[in-house]
């Protein structure tokens, strides 16, 4: 299916591994011109040959000055900007007495302030193109608060509020703001986390993975490509009446009704 993204310019933050890399590849596969941002410059040809024509930019989205410079560089390199995918940031495990305020603030600065600054810098360029897409990747803790992931629960919930509020502001300008919410996806991030909310207890990795996957009605882990497909759809005109939504891509794992 041709999603009509040929000629569009897309920026993906946190785009050099895992979900971000899969999103960049999917958009490139749809013939979009792709810019990938990360804290360190990446050799995209080495990361994946499908990104041979993409451009890499170094930027830490927790720094507003770097975000503004990033947008300027992307617009200068490609002549405009149509799609922004805010994917930078990680998951912070731990209970309230295990996560200090400095860690919490750093998490907020990357995932909430970073997306905020991306929007502030990118929206003027999108308005010049007559519209665009702003898509935020938000982990499950924002909808399913967890004592052992309280920092991510608080920060991810803030991301949801940001998406809803920003969508009201930008929809009249034909800039559609939405979120994609992955759960139980196999990435370098999840490989480093305790599985099934537990530490390694002598089980084989396969046994732990099977228990984690058994909670998913589809009976398997998701792949980064599953998330990338949802992002590509939201970036296209086929999602032209979807605004302020948060779409779960989780094999049916989420039990919330909103």
Could you explain the architecture of this structure?
By secondary structure, the protein is an alpha/beta fold. The protein folds into two domains: 199 residues, Rossmann fold, CATH 3.40.50.720; 34 residues, no CATH class. The protein has eight helices and seven strands; from the N terminus they run βαβαβαβαβαβαααβ. Strands 3-2-1-4-5-6-7 form a seven-stranded parallel beta sheet, with helices on both faces. Helix 2 links the parallel strand 2 and strand 3. Helix 1 crosses helix 8, helix 3 runs parallel beside helix 4 and helix 4 packs parallel to helix 5. The radius of gyration is 18 Å and the shape is globular. About 2% of the residues have low confidence.
Unreliable spans are 198-202
The largest β sheet comes out as:
7 strands, parallel
CATH structural architecture of the largest domain: 3-Layer(aba) Sandwich
The neighbouring-strand order within the major sheet is 3-2-1-4-5-6-7
Helical content band: 40-55%
Give the tally of β-strands: 7
Q: Please give the domain count.
A: 2
How far apart lie the N and C ends? 29 Å
Gyration radius, in Å: 18 Å
CATH topology of the largest domain: Rossmann fold
Features:
Rossmann fold; 2 domains; 7 strands; alpha/beta; 258 residues
List the helices and strands and how they pair.
Elements (H helix, E strand, L loop, with lengths): L8 E5 L4 H12 L3 E6 L5 H4 L7 E4 L5 H15 L4 E4 L14 H28 L3 E6 L12 H21 L4 E8 L5 H4 L13 H10 L9 H12 L10 E4 L9
Parallel strand pairs: 1-2, 1-4, 2-3, 4-5, 5-6, 6-7
Helix pairs in contact: 1-8, 3-4, 4-5
